[in-house]
UniProtKB/TrEMBL annotation, chains A, B:
The lineage of its organism: Bacteria, Bacillati, Actinomycetota, Actinomycetes, Micrococcales. GO terms for molecular function: N-carbamoylputrescine amidase activity. Keywords: Hydrolase. Residues 1-236 form the CN hydrolase domain. This is Putative amidohydrolase. GO terms for biological process: putrescine biosynthetic process from arginine. InterPro entries: Aliph_Amidase/BUP, C-N_Hydrolase, C-N_Hydrolase_sf. It comes from Nesterenkonia xinjiangensis. PANTHER family: BETA-UREIDOPROPIONASE (PTHR43674:SF2), NITRILASE C965.09-RELATED (PTHR43674).
């Protein structure tokens, strides 16, 4: 690893592993940065699944003994570029998810995924991966939860937008809401600082399946936060109990026959 | 009006109207209280649409010139009891909505509604009504938004549950999330104080279609709030613009063909 993104990833993973993290989540497009100027630039940054991004994380997962979820710029079939995230454990690539809901100029660079959310069994429990704007689609989170996800790992790059003083970013609010609504832990690793004219929220948060944060959000009122490694203890198995009280439950209470989820 | 519930409703409506409110939202089961001991007690409290609950609010709406949404215990066909909310304007009943998602012991007392969310044109814009737990079902809020709701009026009775210090109640967080996700204003009138061993959050909030509160939440960290009349200026027409940025939109970004909304 000899580029700045890879060095930052390497340092962050080692810091988290030293703190005892068994699951380590990195931001969206962790190696390359987010703000591409053209599809050509994005394609130059993209790597296939046997390229250095995945290979480097496989090595790190073996060295640290941790499950790692990292966003990266993926070079797919026929030169297509995807905003993806890998799940790596014991030096092996367990799965790769391609972001299904693209934000703003991403559709100039990336081909969206068409598959179901990635939900797989890992050493830290049944894990789903969604990327950034995906997490704002409550039905997409529900689809992952219905597939048995105990923890959702969400690499994010949340651009900093204006908000009232003292208010948590709505991106964090939405993550809390779906964590509580579907009783699933959500681990958000967000980008911080500045990049080519874009300020990032730096809103990393580890949200328990109660909907309340166990750590973070890292951001404050005064703009983008500095890089930070958040840690928390989560009980993955607790997400299997979908009860919301003596008479209520996540799935039991839904009335899908009444819902309209199309596009008017 | 000669019972305590009706007197409180009367005073609150007049206070809100004096403050210039054109839309006035009252809590769930505003007249009768929420904590019934038996179906018999609930049925005794229930009134048909030509009973004193609706008649009293019709009179108040005419006197104050305001649109009023009020939760009430409705006596339906064949003696069925419903947890309902009325929409009244210019002395006329515009519509009545029956809560579709029942919480805890409500299913002992109430027959749930099977109709779509009530969405109707009023003097203050296109108005939807959902009741309490309904608002926690993001697909139900989306169904109302898809029917053109500019404002959702939500009579609530949120029981006070334990939460971490400094955290907003998750009920408020969920309301913010769906307001922002579907770009619809949400006006929550919540119950406060104590009732037969139940503490209420008192979390009334007027949430703009940005997802951020324009007024409230009324509750603090230190238990149930006292009764309060919250007011805010909302621009109903702004909810018609579903753009979320130059390249994104509430409906355009959804991929319902990928979503699974059933019950596993």
């Amino acid at each position: 690893m000899d580029d700045p993104g890879a060095e930052a990833v390497d340092a962050a993973v080692r810091e988290a592993a030293s703190a005892g993290a068994q699951l380590i989540v990195l931001p969206e497009l962790a190696f390359s940065g987010y703000v591409f100027e053209s599809i050509e630039e994005a394609r130059l940054a993209a790597q296939p699944l046997d390229g250095p991004y995945v290979t480097g994380i496989r090595r790190l997962s073996q060295e640290t003994g941790s499950v790692i979820v990292a966003g990266f710029c993926e070079l797919g079939e026929g030169g297509a570029v995807h905003n993806s995230a890998m799940v790596v454990q014991d030096g092996e690539l367990l799965g790769c998810y391609r972001k299904a809901h693209l934000w703003d100029r991403e559709s100039d660079f990336f081909t969206p995924g068409d598959a179901a959310p990635l939900v797989i069994d890992t050493a830290v429990g049944r894990l789903a991966v969604l990327i950034c704007y995906d997490l704002e689609m409550s039905d997409w989170v529900g689809t992952a939860a219905a597939a048995g996800a105990e923890i959702i790992a969400a690499p994010c790059n949340w651009p900093l937008l204006e908000r009232p003083a003292g208010e948590r970013p709505l991106e964090v609010v939405k993550a809390q809401a779906v964590a509580g609504a579907f009783k699933v832990h959500i681990v958000v690793a967000d980008r911080c600082g500045h990049e080519r004219g874009v300020d990032w929220i730096g809103g990393s948060v580890i949200c328990e399946n109660t909907g309340y944060p166990a750590a973070g959000p890292a951001t404050g009122d005064d703009g983008p936060a500095r890089p930070v490694v958040l840690t928390a203890d989560l009980d993955p198995a607790s997400s299997r109990n979908k009860s919301l009280g003596p008479r209520n439950g996540v799935w039991d209470d839904r009335r899908p026959e009444l819902y309209w989820i199309g596009c008017p």
